[in-house]
Amino acid sequence: MPKPIPFPLTPSKGRPPASPQKTLPQLLRAVPGTPTTPGRSPKKLSPSKSSAGRSSAQLSKQLPQVLPPHLGPCLRLQQRAVLASLKPSSHFFVDDDSNDEQPSTNAATYRQLQDLLLGSVTRGEGNSCLLVGPRGSGKTSITEQVIESLPNKPIVILLSGHTQQNDRLALREVAQQLSLQTGKSFLSGIEETEDENQNPFLDSIPSTSLPPPSHLPALISLIPTLARPTIVILDAFDLFAHHARQSLLYCLLDTVQSCRVGQGNNGLAVIGVTSRIDTVNLLEKRVKSRFSGRVLRTAPPVQSHYWINLSRRVLCMPIDAGEEWEYMWRLAVEKFFDDQKVKEVIEDTFALTRDVRLLQKVLVRVVTELRPASPFPSLSAVNSALAAQCRPQYSDLHLLPYPSICLLIAAVHAQTAGHDVVTFEMLHEIFKEQLRASAAAPVQIEGGSIGMTKCTRAGFERLFSTGMFLGVAGPSMNVAPEFVRCRCLVGREAVKRAVDAIGQTSLKKWFYKAS
């Protein structure tokens, strides 16, 4: 019989256990993730309460508030394993439809893209396709995973429309990546031609020299003659369509179209990745005629249980740390996901955005914040991680000059009165009424009170330029600047925090009159 697992519990005094302690396999077979408390017989629960049988009170009795010192290395090892699985290159965020009745969109796209690249890598075909889907739906992950699953290692050229903003930059990047992966120089002839035309008495800067676009067709046509098949990935494909004459796309797709099986050349595949659904319409006629027309689509998960299952799988990464830590960690994860409030937070976040990268950032922060004093994930850690993802707007309002703060308070009074759209004259009138009614002096110069300062136009223009006020109508020559209609974008709570941070009594009294 295996050795019983020691529980970090203080045994009850003068009360011997009524039943022998169960081992880890027996506990896990009895109730998944829920142990039987030693020394006490388990209570029989009604069917209505069977789902709540793993109560938080019962589970918390099995988990220590502070991690024992000998388990500290296990916690660090578990953190490293979870963080490694959360890397973008780990492919943990590719949709898994193993439990679904029908295959998901991403699973079908994966198989289609795999068949397409297998034709280019194994049979020497020329293929092209467009991978379309919203941000965070798994386009890049699917592409990388398919390339890793290929039997032969191809040459992979990755171009980005955000970085290679013209064909000359793209040509330089293609040549550099080919040189790194093949060991040959593809710009030697170009660089020699450039060196012949340079003045020998001037200092040359090789990093700024770019090949002319006329070398693009010659370089692209050499790709099928390389020793290995080549896959070209064009990230932000729609931005390449805005290049002059679309020369890069034309050369790539024309070379793909000319690849034929049995010619003795290796295959070439061009994959365009974009989130814009009308990208095909951006192509010129000569480029569109050479495009295969294959459009593969990706989609984010449609149900929130995918996020919960994914989080559970990531947190339960197996490590070699002994049965005691494995049992304790799995028990903590089960308790964490059995908490109804945790499920509600995940479901609410999923309803706002289905981008799985947000879940990745939240889990990274939750795991990195684990310490021996708080060794297990909790609801407060999730709320803190979600709050850190969105920076509070207008957090430095208390640093604004005095006239600008007065205008914001006047805008709050106008909103309370039902005027969401205001002008500078309206705000100035509200300020003047408060100035007449106020006998306090919020500002002092050389120790003397001067009363409330005059609210100037400069303060309003500053708020307008920083985006705190937004015009509701276009500019007109017939409307004076002080009568331009605008809307205040700063909320009441943000103004309240700024007034409290400033600490001036007169401003506080004026602000709370709007309640």
TrEMBL record:
Alphabetically, the GO molecular function entries are: DNA replication origin binding
Record-annotated AAA+ ATPase domain positions: 125-301
Assigned keywords, A-Z: DNA replication, DNA-binding, Nucleus
The Gene Ontology CC terms held by the record are: nuclear origin of replication recognition complex
Q: Does the keyword Nucleus apply?
A: yes
- Name under which the protein is recorded: Origin recognition complex subunit 4
Give a GO biological-process term.
DNA replication initiation
Stretches with biased composition (Low complexity): 44-59
Q: Which domain of life is it from?
A: Eukaryota
- Give the residue ranges for region: Disordered: 1-59
Q: Family, per the entry?
A: Belongs to the ORC4 family.
Q: Which organism is it from?
A: Scleroderma citrinum Foug A
Give the location in the cell: Nucleus
